[in-house]
Design brief:
With 298 residues, the protein is mainly alpha-helical. It contains twelve helices and seven strands. The strands form three sheets. Strands 1-4-5 form a three-stranded mixed beta sheet.
Length: 298
Amino acid sequence: MANRTLKDAKNIHGTNPQYLIEKIIRSRIYDSQYWKESCFALTAELMVDKAMELRFIGGVFGGNIKPTPFICLVLKFLQIQPEKDIVIEFIKNEEFKYVRALGAFYLRLTASAVDCYKYLEPLYNDYRKLRRQNRMGHYEIVHMDEFIDELLREERVCDVILPRIQKRSVLEESGELDPKVSLLDDDLDQEVMTDDEDTEKISEPPKHSSSKHTSSSDHRRRSRSRSTSREKYKKSKDRKRDESPLRKKYREERRERKRSPNRDRRRSRSRSNERSRNYDDRYHHKRDRSYERDRRRY
């Protein structure tokens, strides 16, 4: 009895509401410990407390196909079939993000295309992070707007096949929906206005007083830089003149030490090359002599 839908529940999309979730997943949910302990005899009022305890979203995971608490509560929602106002309150809840995700998922399964676009599109402005458990049992981070976009565009979310809905363009042409208005349009308009103001400020000619002031300041800076460079050049010259002969000798020896290893390397290379050449010449000469001897013999 605990796994049956209520008698007063209406058919959704022409079928029993629980049949929107596949039979294999439903059977796994009925056999899970969370369903037996936490979802038994739940009402629409008590569902809020259970939804507030959620810490991640997801479908099933593992090789044994274990269900997550999120998908268990979704099935319980389908079994109870609460009123539309309660589901909308779930979606409007801003304090608990997983309560909002649960209400959005249930609305996408049961509501019409117009209601889905009407109540889910405002959630594109929610950028909070959600923790989702994938099929391998690992956790990954998904934002709320990404989750809502998957609900409106993808065919399968949280291992549940979503009912098909009409495209927004078709509903706009028929007059059932107003054209989509994004919050980014206002920001773009403000940016365009600021850009126009900046171009107007740049196009204005500068005043004569400011130009004179800038030219005089530039001239002073240039003269200061020239004077400092001349002073540095004079100091360097004076240092070279005042050097003692011992210091000059030390500098020359230091330069020769730096050059000496390079010279030694060059000499060693030239010696090795000469040795290799002499060895090749001797080898070829011996080979020619042995060839002439063998030729005389035979």
